[in-house]
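During the reporting period, we have paired protein sequences with backbone structure tokens. One record among many follows, to show the layout:
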Amino acid sequence: MLRIEDTDRERSTQEAIDVILDAMKWMGLTWNQGPFYQTRRFDRYEEIIRQLLDQGDAYYCFCSRERLDQLRDAQRADGLKPRYDGCCRNLGRKPEEGEPAVIRFRNPQDGSVIFDDVVRGRVEISNGEMDDLIIARTDGTPTYNLTVVVDDIDMKISHVIRGEDHINNTPRQINIFKALGEKLPIFAHVPLILGEDGQRLSKRHGAVSVLDYRDMGILPEALLNYLVRLGWSHGDQEIFTIDEMIELFDIDNINKSPAAFNFEKLLWINQHYITEIASSRLVAEVGKRLSNRGVGLCGGPKLSEVVEVMRGRVQTLEEMADKVMYLYKDTIGYDEDSVKKHVNKDTSEILEKFVAESEKIDAWEVENIKACIKGFVKSEGIKFPQIAQPLRIAVSGSDATPSIDLTMKLVGRERSLRRINDAIKFFLKSA
């Protein structure tokens, strides 16, 4: 089931919620129940808070923000961990009409919370280290640690698997479970993902939203495959279908040490999936990306032919769209480094002679174009790169294309000859 924990209204904007829903759908991680929104369950949380108040397991706190700030400052100055001092713990009164007050959970002061974490093993935290957390704000809205416990109880959650940054919340939540007389779920706190610099993964490492990876041309199955291998393994196997993930995954095999996010490894996996997926899907994905660039397909080769040529040569869908744009654009520019590397004072003359030879080609097919180029190289007594690389630049704008005969076939006779003639003029000026 999908649960949207949206009680923090500043962070849980509709835009942020839509990102969650869109990301789940894009990844193919559909849900059977929900989504359930915590903001629509306030009556249920209020019922539980009232129960805790009636049991004496919660109380009203009237401390001002100023007092709490001063308390924390003083504790830090004394080298102590900032925590609530229980000032209102035993007041035993309700707020007057209009009087601001939060509601705090009365955390046990003696003993320890002990639980067996699936990943970390036995965890023990003294109750004396925990203060009385706020479970309802002054406006009456419930807080995270209360709402997740109520949801876990109502939704009969068996396992709570989350990042180890939540490890300090778990004993607090366990005490709320116990106060409500409910059975505990099994807890597993997995290591956080690190950047390649060994620091916790964050925005400074690049894309952090699932949809960021979609936009850069990563396939959903590639991202899912990569993520499942972060901190979990099954022998030396790298590529997993979703069915294999479900069949082989065992929570007991999660690594205890954090994994580093390696973008190059993600690209490698994505390249594998690009070579495997249906041509029709590649056509749709690349066509959409070309359209986003304002590039139409009229006058160019069949996109189905192009993606078959390119699928083994790129690592992302965006890269493929970038590399095939020249096949569909009316005009192209020239890569400056390619021109400097492969164009000299003789290039234009060589290309002029080649144009004359290429006009004799009957059918504009790969084998015929290849034979024309080979014959031209032999008759002119030049090396293959002296004609092939300038031709690549002339018809595509750069020296990085598939074989020159295939490239010219895809560009087409009319466009190829027109572009070569345009390049001759440009090379004369730049030589």
Summary: The two ends are 66 Å apart (CA to CA). The longest strand covers residues 112-117.
